[in-house]
Amino acid sequence: MKITFILILFSLHSVLFCQNLKPRYNFDFDKEWQWNQLFDKANNEDTFKELQKLKEILSIHDARFIFYQLSRLAHPMDIKAFSEMEKNQSEWGGGFYGIVPAHFSNMDSIPQPLDFDNLIKTALYLAKIRSENYAVIAKSNFDYPLTFSNNKFPVLTNGNIIPNLHLDLDFSVIQELLKFFNKKEITSAEAQLLASNKINTEMLRHRRELGYIPEPLPDSTDLARFIFHAASKEPLDQIWKWLNPWNDFCLSDLYLFQKKYQKLVNTLVSHSQDITNHILSRISLFLPDAIYYSDRVCFAVNWGVRSWATENTLGTNIVQFKDDYEKMLRTLTHETFHRVQLKICPVDSSRNINKSFEGLAYHNFPEKEDRKFYETLSYIMLEGTATYVGGVDTKWEVKEKMLEGKGLLEQLVSEVYKEHNLENSEKLLNKGLRSNGPFYGLGYFMTKTIVKELGEKEIGRLLKGGCISFFEKYIEISDRGTYSKDLKFSHETVRKIKKIHAFF
Predict the structure, then answer these.
(1) 59: Cβ–Cβ under 8 A, 6 or more apart, which residues?
(2) Rounded mean pLDDT of 104-120?
(3) CB within 8 Å of 158: residues ≥ 6 apart
(4) What is the C-alpha to C-alpha distance for residues 152 and 150, in angstroms, rounded to an integer?
């Protein structure tokens, strides 16, 4: 009797659920309908016009997706939850700091799909938001590919590799995420386990230590939330991913293109040896022969940071490459060279500093102004040499970036030594480094100039000597008559470099 009662309740619930779904719009959105079928249901002129606008914005594939997900909502009012989702994403450290506007701050402005006419309004409202988000991403400074290009893996010509250099590629994080996305049932505990992986922990740590990304900054608990929602098949979570591939800390992108990412990972695994040989043969050109280096590159996902390097882990963000293999190889070589810098660049012996980039950029001068200037010179050398070794896109305006970086350095010298304003100088340093900024261009040009005059091996020798050796060598070369005045540092900057040199 008890079982029969439960079955009756279940059947009643199913009937009510179905009545609350398809009859609401009197249209079966489960099937592959055509546009003309929707137009046939438009009983007023406004709805007809809105459908026309929607057809201009969305492909039939995307239109079927959004209408299907909206039809799955338990209640039309659920659509207002996007306001809370947007707020949570920002509070968990996955916001966009104004790059992408907040679309759902006023939840009362979101149309509710109460009937067919309002359903069209809701779909059009969301489609416009999606179009705006994709337009912002396309124009952003992140150089972010929105789709796969179906590129073939390139034929790589590799040179000699110095003995005792070794590199592995680690795709375990991406593979585990893709498996999680494919599960029928997911739990927050599983998501937390993935987020607490050593690779993800180091990736989040690097993000916190960058210094120029505003708070809040995500921890493993926040990342677990993003992973869980990115894997969710609930209609609101599905629409959220569809609205912006950057949502859920960019895990939405991985979810949206699961099959393509799986194919990409398979391709990269099959060409792992080609990739590592390419990277090692390139960095071998610039390194002393008597060096030992063994490492692995870990592939993961985050928003806004292309790659990271700590003393424990070397990682790269697969969603910012997709199948742009040329860009991927440049970045992997760049980041691998950063790890080698940790082995060969000097650190201040007066303090017990771990081999980190903060340690390489620090020297305990008596005056804080000199410490800030040395830090700036160090980062220009570290990023500039790695950018040159990794290579740049052919569209990169090298001289333009160099001049911008030189001007920024002169401005920083003034702030540090004339104004004694270390707060402003920190802002200038961040400006020079953020998103492959002008200090990358300055360091790249300096490296290129030195290589042109003295060869690749000179870079390894100068890295051993530190940033002052690197800058003084460039100054020596640029002082020759063949170099134009705009490529030379000011007398004040040269004077401050010589002042710091006196401490060594």
Answers:
(1) none
(2) 94
(3) 274, 277, 278, 281
(4) 7
